[in-house]
Amino acid sequence: MIRVLLADDQTLVRAGFRSILDGEDDISVVAEAADGEQAVRLTREHRPDVVLMDVQMPGTDGLEATRRIAGDERLAGVRVVILTTYDVDEYVYGALRAGASGFLVKDTEPVELLQAVRVVARGDALLAPSVTRRLIAEFAGRVSRPEPSPRLNSLTEREREVMALVAAGLSNDEIAERLVLSPATAKTHVSRIMTKLAVRDRAQLVVFAYESAMITPGWLNQPR
């Protein structure tokens, strides 16, 4: 059973999400929070698998709540998905830096919401496919003075290549096709990279790649 916590200051929004999620045999909403402070407290109390977190809430906002949850070692197994009104807004990159595993727009289709919860619960990161590359293009340029990280020295040449493609927004299947690998091999490379760099998931890997100056916006489209 996938245990979900809903954090949104709008009662009707929470009710709508609960109706969709509780209708599934493998998903259960264990708690609801109306602000970030409640979200942190209830996450510590219930230890859900996934927190669906609105960004703009009164008092402690979703960004700060995400930072607290991601920074709490006792909540290492909790994944936060940011809910945003717009497919790309000023909060999203900050949320990913704070430790979110991805984001969804609030008007997403029910089937996409369910898929997102399941994807994140099994440990994968979620960046809505329709806006992933736009997100990267929009926010990667905001990184001020990126500096190479010594942790990159632990990666093989192939792992660096795979990491760069992850950061460019490619899926495992797309990486496999581009590098002429099997999807399973591409997935194994990604898992090893995350272990070596000590990042939580794919979303954090994207952030790390840009902040360590490994790649720059538009890298994938540059002549090679």
TrEMBL record:
GO biological-process terms attached to the record: phosphorelay signal transduction system; regulation of DNA-templated transcription
Response regulatory domain boundaries: 3-121
Keyword Transcription regulation: yes
Transmembrane domains' residue ranges: none
Domain HTH luxR-type positions: 148-213
InterPro entries listed in its UniProt record: CheY-like_superfamily (IPR011006), NreC/VraR/RcsB-like_REC (IPR058245), Sig_transdc_resp-reg_C-effctor (IPR016032), Sig_transdc_resp-reg_receiver (IPR001789), Tscrpt_reg_LuxR_C (IPR000792), WalR-like (IPR039420)
Any matching Pfam family: Response_reg
Residues recorded as bearing 4-aspartylphosphate in the entry: D54
Record-linked SMART domains: HTH_LUXR, REC
GO MF, one example: DNA binding
Assigned keywords, A-Z: DNA-binding, Phosphoprotein, Transcription, Transcription regulation
Protein name: DNA-binding response regulator
Gene source species: Prauserella flavalba
